[in-house]
Amino acid sequence: MSLLASVTLDSRTEGGVGSGIASWFEAAFAGPLAKFLDLERRGAATSLAASQMREGERRKEFLIASGEWGSMRQELMIGPEVADVLVTRSDSDRPAVHVHSSSILVRRPNVEVQLLLSRDDMQRDDEFSLCADIVNFLVSALDSANPAFGRVCVGEPMKEKTNLDAVLRRKIWRSVSEARHFLRGYAWVTVCPEELTEELGGANSLEQAGVFHRVVPLASGGTVLQTTETISGYSDKAMRRTFQTLAPVLPAGLPRFDPANPEVRYIPEDAGQFGRRPR
Question: Which of 138, 198, 203, 274 could disulfide-link 247, Cβ–Cβ 3.0 to 4.6 Å?
Fold first, then answer.
């Protein structure tokens, strides 16, 4: 199954959304993309990198393997409408990895940044190493950003809509605008913004709860919460523990199966029954 890491940046992102986008792509080049760019240098893969400042404007393309990352980074710092890097192995017709950012559905100044690893390339890696690398990538990309939300899940397409957006029928723009008051969702890895981390008692309290395999406070605010050591270990029981721990900051409402998004995983209970923590 494919792996999707998706993060919401907003007006409270440290240094601005452009800096957050650049940090996301830079961490991807140093982490999950590194082996693919090495394959390209050896003629075993090809990449496409581009950014677009506004819809309808011409896209700028960059040759990352030839050293044009600096030029692309300057474009990303401005906060383009859309930016992409795709790498395809020579023995495949589908991208092995796709790094993406867009403000189209989440509405400016908000941006969703994403990384999608294909099923085939996930299967080539040792699961323990892959999972540790993905979490380390997230920490590196977000440590200076103070993101509004983030998640890592498997088997879901590259969409801005979270599991709770789907089953609570929430509009993406509303979900994003309320991200620092209501957690947008939960997954194998959940990135909780600073405001909601504090409402849950802080990173130390979340670590001491014993629910998460790994709790990593981000330097600029927020926390990366890894439920289980591996993706395959994220059972329904583990998901329920995550839901119950995060329920006080999740939006209320009874989830309903969404036939348009049958792959999303969720607990069919109203988080509102757990009550909001007193401020």
Answer: 274
123 three-class SS: helix
* pLDDT of 124 strictly over 70: no
pLDDT at 37 over 90: no
For the entire predicted model, the pTM comes to 0.93
Average pLDDT in the chain: 92
pLDDT digits (tens, 9 = 90+) for 199-253: 999 999 999 999 999 999 999 999 999 999 999 999 999 999 999 999 999 999 9
Q: What residues have CB less than 8 Å from 148, skipping those under 6 apart?
A: 8, 9, 10, 12, 13, 110, 176, 179, 180, 184, 193
- In the block, tokens 């590259």 appear at 158
Cβ-proximal residues to 3 (8 Å cutoff; 6+ apart), any chain: 116, 117, 122, 130, 134, 152, 153, 154, 231
Tell me how far apart the alpha carbons of residues 153 and 163 are, in angstroms, rounded to a whole number.
10
Going by C-alpha positions, the residue among 193, 249, 240, 253 that lies closest to residue 221 is 193
Cβ proximity of 80 and 51 under 8 Å: yes
